[in-house]
Amino acid sequence: MTKEYDRKMKLKEQSEKLFRDKCDDNHFTYLYIDQSQMKFSSTLWKDMASKRPDYILSVPHIGSIFVDVKAKEERLFYKDVFVNYLNKQPPKAFRIDLEEVEKFKKLQNETSMKVWFAIMPHQEETVANEIFFFPVDKADKFIPIQHYDDPLWNYVQIPETCFSDCGKLAYNKCAKCQEKYCEKTKEYISIWEKQHRK
Fold first, then answer.
1. 177: domain range?
2. What's the burial of 104, exposed, middle or buried (CB within 10 Å: 0-12/13-18/19+)?
3. Contact (CB, 8 A) for 143 and 98
4. Is-contact 54 33, C-beta < 8 A?
5. Whole-structure pTM value
6. What does the pLDDT look like over 128-157, one tens digit per residue?
7. Contacts within 8 Å (CB) and 24+ apart, 20-23
8. Which of 49, 67, 138, 168 is at a distance of 20 to 30 A from 100, taking alpha carbons?
9. How far apart are the first and last CA of the chain?
10. Is 76 helix (H, G, I), strand (E, B) or coil?
């Protein structure tokens, strides 16, 4: 085992404990999904590989959902575009692997249960005491066609302001959104490519 592996495992343990604590605080019922191979059907195991959700969570006004718990580094949403072209402060964001989004969308189709990400920002070996929730379905809004045509875009960036906190999972943030980052993602990528692929 390497130090990097140990660090990731430590962050994973912290993030899952924080997830359970927040769910308990909000009186959400949850069930841990055993990650061992024998606990899954052979077809599901083969299709999902290592991309499997961690919990089933029961949320009022939403129902039962899969939740994938992650500790992730905060980044700046298309920093070069916002700073050098738009002259604006970029919002903080998280990067999610495009492959993971696609696999979870397939899992949704096979099980008729929605998948959400529960992301905790971290620094070095410490997870922050906050959780950002985001439904996999809405990731499509931040995935223009470039993501499928160019290996460079093997991830999707989503601003923190588009996530929900644990106490407001049923609240539709998109309805009152002013920034419309998702609708402008294709424009941001086009600007970035002009800056970096001259």
1. 3-196
2. buried
3. yes
4. yes
5. 0.89
6. 999 999 999 999 889 876 555 666 778 899
7. 22/131, 22/166, 23/57, 23/166
8. 168
9. 42
10. strand
